[in-house]
Each structure stands twice: as C-alpha cells, then as structure tokens.
Design goal:
Layout lengths: L11 H8 L11 E3 L6 E6 L3 E6 L2 H17 L10 E8 L2 E7 L13 H14 L4 H6 L10 H17 L26 E3 L4 E3 L17
Antiparallel strand pairs: 1-2, 2-3, 3-5, 4-5, 6-7
Pfam families: APH
InterPro entries: Aminoglycoside_PTrfase, Kinase-like_dom_sf
Protein name: Aminoglycoside phosphotransferase domain-containing protein
Length: 217
C-alpha cells in the first residue's frame, strides 16, 4: 500500500519566481538543485544565493526558527553565517528562505581542514554563550541540564584515546577535573615511543604511567 505524504518538491521555475524581487532577471536556467542537505530542497540561484524550500509543515517550522536563530547569533559568533535576504512561503504552509551564498565546499564533499575545525570550535563556544532565554523565545526546545561529571569522563576517555595516537596535545588533559577520577601524580606530557625507549618532554614522567604513549617513530 502506498504511503501518502504531504511533501511536494518545487520546480526550478517556482524558485526563480521567489527570487526575482531580490535577484532581478533570474530565470529557471539560473536555478540548479544542490542535491545535498536535510529536510528541504536546496537550490543554487545564480552565483551568489541559495534557496531552501521546506517540504512539509514540520520542516517549515524548523526553517523559520533557523532563520530567526541566525539573526540572533550573527553578530555573536565571529564567523560567517548565511543571511536571509528574502523569506516567506513558496506554497501554502511551506516556508522558504533565499540566503546569501557562503564560500567553501560542503564537508560531505571534502574533509574539514585544521583551520575549519578551529573555526567550528570557536563557533560552538560562542553559541554556548547565547542567552538560553533568547533562544527559547524563538521556539528552541529547552533541554534538561547535562550530567557534567559523566560528560567529562567520556570526554577525558576520548581525549586520552586521541592523545595515544599522537593527534592531541596531552598536556591539556590535566585541565579536565573529573569528580571521582584520580589525577596523575605528575603533569602528563606528550611522548613518542621508539623500539627501545620512551622519549618524553618531561624526564620526571618518562616511562611512568603518567607518560602518554604516542606514535611509533
């Protein structure tokens, strides 16, 4: 039995009509489907814009909330975020936004660089500083406080695993104070392991349990 759905995908000509007030002269030939993304149809509109059309009522609600949140955080996060230059409904009860196009390539197509990871980390830190009441006023569902001791234990275990592979500065680990977890007797330092000995930046920890083993040279 076929499953009925209220989803309907817009045509390129419809997207072009939505963008005409903002991008004069745009035609269906200037509109190309992106083919990646979440619960919306995404289109390139000329060289400088992206149109995103929600496909159902739930997606419309999330898209409207996203546009409002981007306006809230735009001046706070210190990294570029898309700006909605036009928004409304492309069909009854179906939201759309026409956004400015950012440079770069999707992480689905190319690995994130170290600079990109640093930018993402900065974005997440600054997002955490957005007042909760301001986000809730825009319809963001509230969440109960997280179990911080449990979260820190999982974060520490993950950091130790990454440090053992030589992909993390292990001298940062003592900063994670986990309740119920005994700290190492000396500050941990990064070391590498040869076939004969451990080489550490601190001779006090060389060969001890506090010496984090890294890549084999």
């Amino acid at each position: 039995m076929a499953i009925m759905t209220d989803e309907r995908w817009p045509e390129a000509a419809e997207v072009a009509r939505l963008a005409q007030d903002t991008v004069p002269g745009v035609t269906a030939a200037d509109v190309r489907p992106i083919g990646e993304g979440g619960d919306h149809a995404s289109w390139w509109v000329g060289p400088d814009h992206v149109a995103r059309c929600a496909l159902d009522r739930g997606g419309s609600e999330r898209l409207r909330r996203e546009v409002a949140l981007r306006e809230l955080i735009g001046d706070r996060v210190g990294v570029p975020v898309p700006v909605s230059v036009a928004n409304g409904e492309w069909a009854r009860g179906r939201a759309f936004t026409l956004d400015t196009r950012l440079g770069g390539v999707s992480a689905e197509l190319r690995a994130v660089t170290a600079a990109g990871e640093a930018e993402l980390a900065r974005l997440l830190v600054l997002l955490a500083e957005v007042p909760v009441a301001s986000a809730e006023a825009l319809g963001v569902p509230p969440e109960a406080p997280r179990n911080m001791p449990g979260l820190l234990r999982r974060a520490t275990a993950a950091a130790e695993s990454v440090a053992a592979r030589g992909e993390f500065a292990s001298d940062l680990l003592p900063r994670l104070h986990v309740p119920g977890r005994r700290a190492p007797p000396h500050p941990a330092r990064w070391c590498t392991t040869t076939s004969r000995e451990s080489i550490c930046s601190s001779p006090r920890t060389a060969g001890s349990a506090a010496c984090w083993t890294g890549r084999t040279r």
